[in-house]
Amino acid sequence: MSYKNFPMVPRVIFGRGSFNQLNEILAPKRLSINAPFIYLVDDVFKNNSWLTSRIQLSYDDKLIFVSSKEEPKTSQVDALVEEIILLTKERPSGVIGIGGGTLLDLAKAVSIMLTNNGESKDYQGWDLVKNEGVYHVGIPTISGTGAEVSRTTVLTGPDRKLGINSDFTPFDQVILDSELTKDVPTDQWFYTGMDCYIHCVESLTGTYLNAFSQSYGDMALELCKEVFLNGELPEVESQEKLMMASWHGGMSIVYSQVGVAHALSYGLSYLLGTKHGIGNCIVFDQLEEFYPEGVKLFKEMKAKHNIELPKGICADLIDEQFDIMIDISLSLEPLWENALGKNWEKTITREKLRELYQKM
Amino acid sequence: MSYKNFPMVPRVIFGRGSFNQLNEILAPKRLSINAPFIYLVDDVFKNNSWLTSRIQLSYDDKLIFVSSKEEPKTSQVDALVEEIILLTKERPSGVIGIGGGTLLDLAKAVSIMLTNNGESKDYQGWDLVKNEGVYHVGIPTISGTGAEVSRTTVLTGPDRKLGINSDFTPFDQVILDSELTKDVPTDQWFYTGMDCYIHCVESLTGTYLNAFSQSYGDMALELCKEVFLNGELPEVESQEKLMMASWHGGMSIVYSQVGVAHALSYGLSYLLGTKHGIGNCIVFDQLEEFYPEGVKLFKEMKAKHNIELPKGICADLIDEQFDIMIDISLSLEPLWENALGKNWEKTITREKLRELYQKM
């Protein structure tokens, strides 16, 4: 038996307003005046000087706004890397991702592709990365994905949606400043928060679970319930707790896996470009038979916050399109095995998946 | 406001039997054949080939058995460092601590003192360490202290009992193999486990608490209750959960502090050499007025496991001895402030402390 030797984020700072410490944290990491810091920032913060004025651009440092309207793509990573190489005289001192899961995953992937040859699609999979990436920092501005702590960066490539899982993927530094999440719109707050809730349910009910992952998953789930279900937490406390839920939820996956919801939502996202958070919600809403208690609570939370999920997103699809989603979904074997055990193929047939997708 | 940028253990492996992966983990860290690995192992494992046969000594690697009968001392660290320097041709490739809090703290301190001049007492305090220590690995064989994850190594020096708190203190690698805890005697298991329980109570009721530390503390406390109070967990599950409790309990202190129990028990330990785990229990048993609920549960757990604490350990002390303990205890200002707020000095007088010590 061989256990994963998990790389943890080696530096973390937590606190309301800790974003103000960014420049001080980066300063000693500057390799030379020709080796800039590259900031990848969600373009919702364009013209938001409350945030951007606190980013000190020195020498050749660049701030690049990136849209998170779509899921991150391998082609987008490759284009960003090319742009950065053209813009800079030397290999950057660091890449700083500021945003949600999309921006965090892009920052992780760009950091890796600045020091590894070829295209990012070549590294989708497990432990294919050869060289350490450049120093990279993650600063979440919405909570739930766990991307700030995970060992992967999930990208949609030409052939598949799959992570670059490697020891070089995790951030070197994370800044957890819950104040950055204060202006997230309610629906987005819910979808992204539910990403955490759903992967905790999947992890905690899965066959891969051990005491390490269970303790993190239990904690994250409790925090999600406090934020979304039980009650009327003061705003700041709610933001802080959801940020911790996301962090612990990400840690819960270390010795575990996600399950049915993620396996199906990857199909949606590959074919239809459905964003991860809302996609998980659309799928999970239909999974009573797999996660009866988890789905019941989910529906309560949805009702409590007046969330209306899109309906009929698969209504007009043709056979070939269902087949594409089903292929993607079935290819995610570890997720199915975690959810249903070694004999998952006995119950998860193409017909079964089609039937599920047709409900969405 | 400036928040601590906390250094986390960058690599962790969790699993029953993961100790078998030690040699494979160390191999790539060997700097040269003249730069050995130094294993500091609790001498309870002398002649225990189940454990020692799995440590592969190559080239000039040394295994040094160390007694954990007494709390670790600065003089002991300095003597170990001198011994290691005399034994080795080059600076060691790594120091591996195998044991409880005493061995883990010794390994951390030795690692630091191999690369920093002077005596270890000079580094007791906060951020006095100048140079990164040698690569160091922590392998707990008993659960509760949190030393495997903390940013300190608590040593008794000529003048005080105080930690070497620094960014270079945390381990570079931790191996969490609960099987190594299987032969711990019941009383020791209880005392060390209660170290975790007690510092969670202190952290969770303290004034320094934030959402980060609270989430870790809540989780650790829940796990302690599962292990010590609720019930009849299967042995392996109980060992695994207590190992995770210790880990999370250590993390809980990151943005928090311990409190009254630790402040008083440091005095006992300085004067009488009382070991940390049992010392905390002796003190905590008398702290109803500070931690009513925590002490109530503690007494239940003590009863459930038929633990008899030593009584009257301060019965024969003279005034000068009480004064020494009181001085040590009062010097730990952050602990008092965390426990009782900025005005702690109004209630914590020398008379009050003497009265408390006299009950023990």
UniProtKB/TrEMBL annotation, chains A, B:
One of its GO terms (molecular function) is alcohol dehydrogenase (NAD+) activity. This is Alcohol dehydrogenase. Keywords: Oxidoreductase. PANTHER family: 3-DEOXY-ALPHA-D-MANNO-OCTULOSONATE 8-OXIDASE, ALCOHOL DEHYDROGENASE. The keyword Transit peptide does not apply. The keyword Oxidoreductase applies. Residues 191-291 form the Fe-containing alcohol dehydrogenase-like C-terminal domain. Gene3D superfamilies: 3.40.50.1970, Dehydroquinate synthase-like - alpha domain. Residues 11-177 form the Alcohol dehydrogenase iron-type/glycerol dehydrogenase GldA domain.
